[in-house]
Structures are given as structure tokens and as C-alpha cells.
Amino acid sequence: MKRAFIIFLLFFLFSSGCTTRVPDYASHPYAGTQAGTMSWDVNGAIVRPSPVWTYNGKDVFSEWYYRAGNLNVSGDVVYISGDRLTALDLKTGHELWETQLKNSLPNENAVTCILFPTIYKDKIVAVGARLVVEKGSDYYSERRNVLVFDRVTGKLLWKSVDIGSKLEYFNQGYPVILNNRIYLPALNGEYRAAQPGYQSMASKKEERGIWVWDLNTGKLLDKIFFSFPEGELCLSITNVISDGENLYVMAGVTPSVDKTNRTLDPQYLIAFNPRDGKVLWQIQLTDNMAGTTGFNSSGMNSKVIVVSRSVAPTATHGPDSWIRAYDKKTGKILWRKPIKVWVSAVDISLTEDGLFAQVTDNSLSCFDPMTGKEIWTYKCNYRPPSAGFFTVGPVFCPFLTRNVLYLTSIDMIIALDPDTGKELWSIVPPFPKIIDEEENSNGSWRFIPVDSGFVTLYADFSMSGDAMLSPPFVQLWSATNNKK
């Protein structure tokens, strides 16, 4: 049981928590600051980098919120979030400003956590999360809303009404900004965990969709709904990305209380035109094994959308592990390829010419995005401590820059030449163990490429008893070691 939890946790850290950048489309509004992708328009470190500065953060409210996307870099500023939003100077590591939000209502926790900081022009768009005690209930539930800050000062400009709660809005929900509009999976403010007796069911009264806000005013402009025969939108496995024109939704489905078959929880891939409010195409990806399909903006170029999935065989079903490429205009499948990585969804990076994805427990391949033809394969000869959780070796999270492909696992970083797969260098960063426990203590971290290096964020947390989390430990690594 403990082993299964650790494997799920590591998948969550690398698949959902990686805060990264979008491909550099000419028409794309994000300029590379959208959360949830793996491709970065910067020069990587050709030679082995070294630490330049270290920032020791302050206490964070919850290790669960920490594991959400809480690191971003835009220009010369590093943004970290948790129980506060903090801006650091990229060159020096000095704190520029800090914002912490407190609640005043008697049934709410005193601090609002700030998740998924996404940079758009002069603003920071994030998701707020706080705990409340529901009337007539003996447990805490979670409430969420949209938060928009001034990028220069950190001042809160506006926040929305509640848009969801409880565990179903836990690990997904990156804000997508398109034409000064914010798109985010959301529920109505009346939402409770579920109808009595049906913890994972959707109530008939719930509004589950992609809600739309005006970036500048906070006005709720629209609610986008999709139709599924099995039930309603399941927020915990729903994600939205954009190519600067259309929205692409990985939609998880949870059964409605009026459905007789409450075991169905499929996933769909949907292309949606926000200008006309029309679904361009909709295809079903999985049936009743939903929850771990990989999908983010790094899996899309001008012609292809790539989806990954990795589910180990059990007593009731065989393996369901694959990479699939779909035509972006029609949703028609172009090719599919089986993989052998048994740790949930596999992260990928994609350009017009190459698709980078892990295919076994110790190897990563580059494929032609249109045909699936293998171009090269890199096999890892290292067996770091984290490999003990898996069959052979580490689980890679690929981050692509202009000239370097970084592969990160739980305790190592490898740099490859993206054209040949040749290894350039590798390091094991000295992440400290801060919480003093003999076992059930495990570090987790984030990684974002910057010019000639990268920024890492690390925290140690307890995996047993009361949730314990160390303050975040942020470092800049650079090949030029510029300390100016």
C-alpha cells in the first residue's frame, strides 16, 4: 500500500506539478509563460551548470497545495506560490515583493493558498484555495476561486466567486488565457462533495464546465458545457490547453446520480472553437480506466496533438500504456505506439520535427510527430536511489529548450543533445533533507529552464502522520555562473 502511494505521488509531482512553458507559436499569447507544458524558448546549458544563489522561503500552508504548480519564471523574475505569492530577482535571488491573502469569515481557514501562477502580459493569473467548515458537517472542504494580481507589485486586483471545492478540484485546473479571457474548469458555488451516499457522483444541480472570465474586470462572461452519455465533467482529471486560437480539453467524466451504471468514468479529447462556441470534434480516449492520461500544451504543434498513458496490468485488466498522435484539425488518429512505463501518464515534449517521450523504465526516444517513426533512443545507465520504486530506472520528465533536452527524475538531471540523443552531462542536485524523520520523509521539487541554466524548487515533506512540510528551497543553476 505504501509502495502504491509513493508511485502515485511521484506521478502527481511530475505530471501535474511541473510548471513549464508552451511551444513558441507565432500567434500564441502566452510567450511561454503558460503552466503545464515542457517546451521552453531559451538556450539550455551545454556544459554542466553550478548553483548561483539559494533562496530559503517561508512556511507554506499545506504539502498538498505545495505539490500543485507553484513555480514560474518570466523575464528576470521567479514566481513561487503556496500560502503566499513571492517574486524573486532571477539574477540575484533577492525577494522583490510578497503577497499573502487572509480570510475573515469565521468558518474559513485564515490563509488562502495561491496555486498555478500563470503570467500573462502585466498580470499574474492564479487559483485560490482555502478550507472551510460546511454547515452541518464535521469535515473541512475546499473552496477555490480565480485570483488575478498585478505582475509588478503583487497587488490583488480581483478574485472571483467560488468555482469548486473538495477533492475533485485538487490536482488540475491550470488557468488558460486567450484574448484577455481566462478559461478554467469550474463548478457552481453550491457544490458539495456529492449527493449523500455517492461520494464520487455528480449532482443534477451542479454546473460542471469550462468557465470564462474577463481578465481585466473579473466579470464572468460565459460557461462552456459538454455532453457525455456517462455523466458530467470530472474536474480532477480535466485539463484545458490552447494553441492561441482554439481550446483543447482533456475531459474526464464522473457518473451522474441518475445513471444506473456508476462504474463508468471515461475520458474524452475535445476541440472547441471559443469564438463560435462550437465543438469542432470530440473523441473518446478511454473507457473505465480514466484518471492518469497525460495531456498538456507541450503535446501539441501546428498539426498534431499527442496523448500519453501508462497503466500497469492488474488482476482485472492488462496494461493500457501507449502514446497516440491525433490530427489536430479532425481528431483522427494518425498513429499509436505501445510503451512500457508503469508509473501512470508519461510526460512528453513536442516540436514540429520531434516528439520526446519515455518508452521504457530507463530509456527515452525521439519520434517523428507525423508518423511515429523512431529517430533516436537514449538509454540511461544510472540507477539513482529513486529507481528502487520502479522496475529498472528513473521516470523522466523532459524539458526542451532551443539546444538542450533536460531529463529530470526525482533525484537527478540529465542533459541531452535533442538532435542526436547524445548525453552532454548529468548531475544529482544536493537537495537537503530538512524534516528529521527516519522514514516516510520524501523530498519533491520543481524544475524550470532559464537561459544557460535552470531554476529548481525543493521542499521536504512527511508522508505519515500530520502533514509536515519544510519551507521551499529555491536555487538558480547556471553554466555561466553569473552572480551579478
Explain what this protein looks like in three dimensions:
The chain is mostly beta strands and 484 residues long. It contains 2 helices and 33 strands. Strands 6, 7, 8, 9, 10 and 11 form a 6-stranded antiparallel β-sheet that branches. A hairpin with a 2-residue loop joins strand 12 (176-178) and strand 13 (181-186). Residues 1-33 and 387-392 have low confidence and may be disordered.
Largest sheet: 6 strands, antiparallel
Helical run tally: 2
Spatial shape:
globular
Quick one: CATH class?
Mainly Beta
Structural class: mainly beta
Mean pLDDT: 78
Beta percentage is 35-45%
Structural domain count: 1
Rounded radius of gyration (Å):
21 Å
CATH superfamily grouping = YVTN repeat-like/Quinoprotein amine dehydrogenase
**CATH topology grouping:** Methylamine Dehydrogenase, Chain H
Taking the alpha carbons of the first and last residues, their distance comes to 49 Å
In CATH terms, what is the architecture? 7 Propeller
Q: In which range does the helix fraction lie?
A: under 10%
Number of strands: 33
Short description:
The protein is mainly β.
List keywords for this structure.
single chain, globular, 2 helices, mainly beta, 484 residues, six-stranded antiparallel sheet, four-stranded antiparallel sheet, Methylamine Dehydrogenase, Chain H, disordered N terminus
